[in-house]
Amino acid sequence: MRLHEYQSKSIFAQHGIPIPKGRVANSAGEVKQIAEELGGRVVIKAQVLIGGRGKAGGIRLAKSVEEAEEIATQILSMDLKGLPVRRVLVDEIVSFSKEIYLGITNDRTERKPVIIASGAGGIDIEEVARQSPERIIKIYLDAPFGLHDFQTRELAIGIDLQRELWKPFNAIAKGLWKAFKETDAAIAEINPLVVASTGMLIALDGKLVVDDNSLFRHPELVEIRDLDAEEPVEVEARKYGLSYIKLDGNIGCMVNGAGLAMATLDIIKQNGGAPSNFLDIGGGASADKVATALRIICADPQVKVILVNIFGGITRCDEVAKGILAAQKEANKNIPLVVRLAGTNAEKGLKLLSGTNMHTAASMEEAAGKATRIAAGEKK
Length: 380
Ligand code: GDP
Ligand code: MN
Hints:
This protein has about 375 residues and is α+β, with helices and mostly antiparallel strands. It is built from 13 helices and 18 strands. The protein has helices at about 5-15, 30-35, 65-75, 125-130, 150-160, 165-180, 220-225, 230-240, 260-270, 285-300, 315-330, 345-355, 365-375; strands at about 20-25, 40-45, 60, 80, 85, 90, 95-105, 110-120, 135-140, 185-195, 200-205, 205-210, 245, 250-255, 275-280, 305-310, 335-345, 360. The radius of gyration is 25 Å and the shape is elongated.
């Protein structure tokens, strides 16, 4: 779950990280009022769950209350990379001399959290990482011990931070670590953290991505989740307890179990095909859940064929077959299905599907082959 900038910065502020004065608004009228309170010179920032808003025109500076209202009207009617802007953050303008990148994430290879800093922060940080990786400083952390003073000092030196700012930088990095840990974040990032002309370090942007698997212990975060701003298909899938991830290909996949789902993607690729999604319907899925899963797969216009690969254990193949039949009835889209059912009640399931125009397969290999040929435009 990704939080909006204004939500992330408010959590950072609770951990002692300085942020600009400002408030979120959903109308130009409200923006006008906030701009008046802040003295007219404000930055107006689209609150959408994507990066690179600056480059996409979603961040603009206003020199007066009137200009703020005008810009707000424009931004609030914009689409940023396909996402409508429903809210803007209105912050006081901060002038600065240096932009720093500071972020914490988990490094899966090292199996440790890593804190990353760069003196070349700002909107081109990806470019910096590619072109001059030596300007990115990384320190691996031991989760139980957290972040030590000597480590933040190493970062401060690495990014050429002036000596007077080491102390506030230490406090900010530690605040970020606490925010990362307490929210069970996958990413906690400030870009840019600026050296303001007042001499202070201030977080101008904030990004928190919370691990979905930990949301059960963060009701306060679930409450502020902005479902309107997320991919509708993924929201729908989550509601039914389905793990769905959109991919680029044209073979839809409905599988039970994450391991089998991954194996299915591999075998499709080995056959020269390209999966359009990862979808794990979980154990013991009901016909209703299966039908929802199929609807979600079919919602992707790229899908040319659907491969159903079920190994029945707790999941009963006849339930799966019922779900397929239910979904097919309402969807009335003519997407061919290749079905491989094995395990609990497989014969019952296959019997329910016989007499329909579905393709069946006895093995995964055969199913993947058929699906790939259909996706490529061959009959079978
Ligand atoms: P992002 O593009 O989505 O990462 O949005 P950011 O919040 O990081 O803003 C992009 C850029 O806009 C920053 O790197 C700054 O250069 C600039 N910016 C954002 N807020 C302010 C501000 O208050 N004052 C000034 N001068 N520039 C700002
Ligand atoms: Mn940013």
